[in-house]
Design a protein that fits this description.
By secondary structure, this protein is an alpha+beta fold. Helix content is 27%, strand content 19%. Among the domains are: 156 residues, von Willebrand factor, type A domain (Rossmann fold, 3-Layer(aba) Sandwich), CATH 3.40.50; 124 residues, Severin (3-Layer(aba) Sandwich). The protein is globular, with a radius of gyration of 27 Å. One of its GO terms (cellular component) is cytosol.
Length: 770
């Protein structure tokens, strides 16, 4: 059995050929023969018919009942939607849209589309759900959910009521997709039980009217929060307790991180008597060893009675006491093209302690600040199984790495001031016939559909693999609901509920038409991390390659009715091979390129834990040309004009020595300056007279009183504002040490150990055509 990430049995391996070893300098390669630089005209290959969303919709309230007549016509009309437009990937080069990629819209009535859960909070890999597992298997696409349940929201309806209306059978919270049979009865959209409408629910607090339960906020919003009554509490809400465990060894003091931590704590301290004196207390220590395990055990005993948050700061490999670790990294094997060992933990001490913490409502967040190997594969378990977070700052040094210090300061400020949910649990419910297969993220699975989250924060993402246990033939739609029960820092017990409704379809063309390529990529990344740890890295790499081959093979053999030469894909999956290649070249999965083991493990942690938007920037960074920014098409945010340059392909071919290019890679932003860059950009944005004057370690854009400076700083600031962490800015020249990191993100180009995008497409085509 060869490795596959989609949960279907497939036979016959697809081996990716190794490219010949060849150095790639800063040249500007010409296109391969037959690979057109301009977009080819859309091909007219025929596909199985597919229909658009229904036009008519009238009923008392939103719910699955009205979907029956409106969705029954799927696949009966002959018009092909844009998502199924056939694309020959070997001919059409410029496949990236000019701006952000929007997820597909579920084929629902317009009224339901407007109130469906926002895709940034809750989305599915397939926005059209197959009727049967066999149909899903035939599509060779994974079915799963991606959630950002505690995301910071600008608008969140909050309901205070003594009665929270739920299904008496499956305990689903009432939502926009239930059906009101009349004013006194409603049908659950998950188990279809008919429930009575409570008397209190007849009154609408928003309109102050009686007798219109279908207009209540709970039935008009797919995301809503309830103030929970006492029956949702196992014990009285505990005070928010925060405990800090600090490495104060000689190495830790030398890094200078204690000064930053203490300054940050002084800023957010709640009592004037609070005094932080740790840097002075341990300033002259000569202790070089670290006993992290015993410190964690002591901290656990302190927090056990109340629960809370444990913040652990570590700067070296712990070598004393329980949980002591030894170095497992061979620096000579960092660039190995073979198997990468030691991705799994060396001991179960940290996992066991994390499970004990979870049982006592304690979450552990780990801040690792070290230039040496610390065995993050073992240490990260303390956060993974206690619903904590991992922060990693390699080469942290207060004197020699000011950019790293700024990043740590900004991250710590966000960490200390962001919203937090304590004693949380999250349950995911779905329509009868669907079932949860696997969860991805940081948590402890308490039961098949219940996650234990001692802490939940607005920067955490989750993924869920789904399967179809029973045929959905009689259903026109299915629903998914995530309910997050937590205690706020003010001691309120709250429930945040997200509900998503998706149509059910019975043809492969419909399934492909609703494929969400970014959600699929994000789910496959999480699955590949698990495969790397439980099996091997090569297994995971083969499985990712097979995922793209198998889905395009299914499309070619089962959806296209006229076979044509080339590598054909539906428009909605046109970026799938590119994203798979990007994953293969990502720090977590790449081979043949020198990668420190802790760096690789941290990248895997990020892929499993971060929300999809940030994961996609890690996988496929965004490249922009910024030496010619204008206000044309700019966004107007808070009376600021934010330029919107076009996204460029990640290829050296797109760079120009006369330009300046900004690469947003999620946690880091590169500003590459061409050797012959426009002198006006150098003087008016960077404040230097010529290229030679650009500093080697420039991390800040000077605040100059020029339109060009204001536009560039506005754009960089806007990129940073869209994420909770602080991306470091590196201004780099050809001679910069960081140029190699910048070039490694040029995914479409050949490297010494990996195929170019065009070569990868040829390999995929060869396998698809077998």
């Amino acid at each position: 059995m060869r490795p596959v990430l989609v949960l279907v049995p497939i036979d016959g391996p697809h081996q990716q050929p190794a490219p010949p070893v060849r150095h790639m300098g800063l040249s500007y390669p010409s296109l391969p023969p037959g690979y057109q630089n301009t977009s080819a005209s859309p091909m007219q290959a025929q596909t199985q018919p597919y229909s658009h969303a229904p036009q008519s919709y009238q009923q008392l309230s939103a719910g699955p009942a009205q979907l029956s007549p409106s969705l029954a016509g799927l696949s009966l009309q002959s018009q092909t939607p844009e998502t199924l437009r056939v694309v020959n990937l070997l001919q059409e080069r410029n496949l990236l849209p000019p701006g952000p990629i929007t997820p597909p819209t579920p084929c629902l009535p317009q009224d339901l589309q407007k109130i469906n859960c926002h895709p940034e909070v809750f989305r599915s890999t397939l926005t059209n759900i197959p009727q049967t597992q066999s149909l899903l298997n035939k599509a060779k696409l994974p079915l799963g959910l991606l959630l950002h349940p505690f995301k910071d929201l600008s608008q969140l309806p909050v309901v205070t009521s003594s009665t929270i209306v739920r299904c008496r059978s499956c305990r689903t919270y009432i939502n926009p997709f239930v059906t009101f049979l009349d004013q006194r009865r409603w049908k659950c959209n998950l188990c279809y039980r008919v429930n009575d409408v409570p008397e209190e629910f007849m009154y609408n607090p928003v309109t102050r009217s009686y007798g219109e339960p279908h207009k209540r906020p709970e039935v008009q919003n797919a995301t809503i929060e309830f103030i929970a009554p006492s029956e949702y509490m196992l014990r009285p809400p505990q005070p928010a307790v925060y405990l800090f465990v600090l490495d104060v060894s000689h190495n830790a003091v030398e890094t200078g991180y204690l000064d930053v931590v203490c300054q940050s704590l002084n800023i957010v301290k709640m009592h004037q008597d609070t005094h932080i004196g740790l840097p002075q207390m341990f300033g002259k220590t000569m202790e070089t060893q670290s006993a992290l395990g015993p410190a964690l055990q002591a901290a656990f005993k302190l927090l056990s009675p109340t629960g809370g948050r444990m913040s652990v700061f570590q700067t070296q490999l712990p070598k004393l006491g329980v949980g002591a670790l030894k170095s497992r990294e061979d620096p000579n094997q960092r660039a190995s093209a073979k198997e990468i060992p030691n991705l799994s933990p060396a001991t179960d001490f940290y996992k066991k302690l994390a499970l004990d913490c979870s049982g006592q409502q304690v979450a552990v967040d780990l801040f690792l600040l070290s230039s040496q190997y610390c065995d993050l594969a073992s240490l990260a378990c303390i956060s993974r199984y206690s619903a904590g977070s991992v922060y990693y700052y390699p080469s942290y040094q207060q004197q020699h790495n000011p950019a790293g210090v700024e990043c740590f300061q900004k991250d710590l400020k966000r960490y200390l001031t962001r919203k937090i949910g304590l004693e949380a649990v999250m349950r995911i419910r779905c329509t009868k016939g669907l079932s949860i297969h696997t969860f991805h993220g940081n948590f402890f699975v308490r039961s098949t559909d219940l996650l234990s989250l001692p802490n939940v924060n607005p920067d955490a993402g989750f993924a869920v693999q789904m399967s179809i246990e029973e045929n959905l033939v009689d259903m026109q739609s299915v629903s998914f609901q995530a309910a997050l029960l937590y205690t706020s820092s003010k001691g309120e017990r709250r429930i945040r509920v997200h509900t998503m409704c998706l149509p059910v379809v019975n043809s492969l063309s419909d399934i492909f038409a609703g494929a969400d390529v970014q959600a699929i990529t994000g789910l496959l990344a999480s699955m590949a991390v698990d495969r790397s740890v439980t099996s091997s890295l090569s297994d995971a790499r083969d499985a990712m390659t097979n995922a793209s081959i198998d889905s395009l093979t299914s499309y070619r053999t089962s959806v296209l009715t006229i076979q044509q030469p080339g590598l054909l894909a539906p428009a909605c999956l046109r970026l799938f091979p590119l994203y798979i290649l990007a994953l293969l070249k990502q720090k977590a999965f790449r081979t043949g390129t020198s990668t420190r083991l802790d760096d690789r493990v941290f990248a895997m942690c990020q892929l499993k834990y971060q929300p999809l938007a940030y994961v996609m920037l890690m996988i496929h960074p965004a490249l922009y040309r910024v030496d010619d920014l204008t206000d044309e098409g700019a966004l107007n945010i808070s009376e600021r004009a934010i330029p919107q340059p076009r996204v460029q392909q990640l290829s050296v071919e797109k760079l120009s020595r006369e330009g300046a290019f900004l690469m947003d890679a999620g946690s880091v932003i590169y500003l590459w300056i061409g050797r012959n860059c426009n002198p006006d950009f150098l003087t008016q944005v960077l404040g230097v007279p010529d290229y030679a004057a650009v500093p080697q370690n420039m991390n800040l854009l000077p605040e100059l009183d020029t339109a060009e400076s204001q536009r560039t700083r506005a754009f960089v600031g806007w990129l940073r504002e869209q994420r909770p962490f602080f991306p470091i800015l590196h201004v780099i020249r050809d001679e910069s040490p960081l140029k190699a990191s910048f070039m490694q993100n040029m995914i479409e180009d050949r490297t010494e150990s990996a195929l170019s995008y065009y070569e990868f497409l040829l390999h995929v085509q060869q396998q698809v055509s077998k």
